[in-house]
Specification:
It contains 5 helices and 20 strands. The protein is mainly β. The strands form 3 sheets. Strands 1, 2, 3, 4, 5, 6, 7, 8, 9, 10, 11, 12, 13 and 20 form a 14-stranded antiparallel β-sheet that branches. A hairpin with a 2-residue loop joins strand 5 (about 140-155) and strand 6.
């Protein structure tokens, strides 16, 4: 278990560094509007041999690690939530034409897409997957559900059976469409005939805070799928100069606290990045009078935010993702109800023929519905009681297999 934990922490650290570098380089190109500038401002300047270690070279609490130079596009646009951009992606008409068995909303965002494995038209069960997006723009929410299913040939096409919810994520966006928080649950592998657990465990969470147009903080937490381990979390804090360009990023993990200091050369389109490790207790002051206190040793708290009046506004502890309020919990029961999008409740006067006609536009598919619901309907396919919940399988054809969702 200890080895697996180290591997997961290493993966999380690498993943965040990739997203962080991309996000900061994109953020730096825009002159953003919003909150007042923090105290620590850096001026774009040429680096010399004496300045090799950056503006924090004299701080003995920090250990200089590296100095790198990156190219950045001054005319680009910023995006602070790259990891979740796919959720609200708007597809153009050409992309929509290339995706089969998919449904889009009026804004050309995905609502549903179905994909199959290449051998779907063979003589045995095959693999398929469904992606469902349940959006509420008034509330700024989106629930993403990922289903895995088995599939079987049926007449001139195939149908989906043994539908299995594998992952569900709830996203909350602000009025600008930026991600504020999310919670994701996934099934553990290995405990049922199909290889999956009957329970969904808290897997990861995310929170972000903004001041005006600026991304100020991010917190991401990973659980270990219902184990007794504490999981791992990572916190990112950003500061900007008078022009709204990011000049500092402080990354805190279970293992270390790292500073990334940015200096820019607008004429060359280059950014100088100086990296430091926090070796002793270190504070970062903001213009509003608040102070962030960072403690690199395995003591509590790892991060503490103190307001100008001395009030403690935030504390993050090593070994706990306290701000998310979620650790090792099973998925809420109400999430399971999202499987109803493939359910039909029998009304008085219904028969399998008209249910098939409503569902597929062809009453002859009644035998498929009966086959999938034999245990619920019973031996007489002509006798179905009002209120009975039927599973309506998805039906596709050979054309649908040419381009997966």
């Amino acid at each position: 278990m200890e080895i697996n934990m180290k591997k997961k922490k290493f993966y999380i650290s690498v993943q965040w560094k990739i997203y962080g570098c991309i996000g900061i380089l994109l953020l730096c190109i825009g002159y953003l509007n919003g909150c007042a500038s923090p105290v620590n401002n850096a001026v774009a300047k040429e680096s010399t041999a004496d300045e090799f270690q950056g503006i924090y070279a004299e701080d003995n609490r920090l250990e200089f690690v590296s100095h790198e130079t990156y190219e950045y596009d001054k005319d680009g646009s910023s995006n602070s939530s790259l990891y979740y951009a796919q959720i609200n992606k708007i597809y153009d008409e050409e992309e929509i034409a290339e995706i089969s068995h998919a449904y889009f909303d009026e804004q050309n965002r995905l609502l549903y897409v179905l994909g199959y494995s290449p051998n779907i038209l063979g003589n045995s069960w095959s693999y398929c997957e469904e992606n469902v997006y349940q959006r509420d723009d008034e509330k700024g929410t989106c629930r993403y559900i990922y289903f895995k299913s088995n599939s079987m040939p049926y007449r001139d096409g195939y149908y989906v059976a043994a539908r299995y919810m594998f992952e569900v994520s709830d996203y909350q966006f602000d009025e600008e469409g930026r991600l504020q928080r999310s919670l994701t649950y996934r099934r553990e592998v290995g405990s049922d005939p199909n290889g999956y657990s009957p329970e969904l465990f808290f897997s990861r969470g995310y929170q972000a805070s903004y001041e005006g147009a600026r991304l100020m903080e991010e917190l991401q937490y990973y659980d270990y799928w219902g184990t007794n381990e504490v999981g791992a979390w990572e916190h990112r804090l950003y500061q900007y100069n008078d022009q709204g360009i990011p000049i500092l990023e402080v990354v805190t993990t279970e293992d270390e606290i790292t500073l990334y200091s940015y200096e820019y050369h607008e004429d060359r389109g280059q950014a100088e990045v100086y990296t430091y490790l926090v070796k002793e207790d270190w504070e970062l002051s903001c213009e509003d009078g608040s102070i962030y206190c960072f403690r690199p040793q395995w003591e509590s708290p790892a991060i503490k935010k103190v307001a100008a009046d001395g009030t403690v506004e935030k504390e993050l502890f090593y070994g706990k993702g306290m701000d998310l309020g979620q650790q090792h919990y099973l998925m809420p029961e109400e999430v399971e109800e999202t499987m109803d999008d493939h359910r039909y409740i029998v009304s008085p006067g219904d028969c399998l023929w008209n249910i098939a006609h409503k569902s597929y536009g062809c009453g002859e598919y009644y035998d498929l519905i009966y086959r999938m619901n034999r245990s619920v309907i019973g031996w007489d396919e002509n006798l179905i009681l009002p209120g009975t919940r039927l599973y309506i399988p998805e039906v596709g054809n050979e054309q649908d297999t040419k381009v997966g969702g």
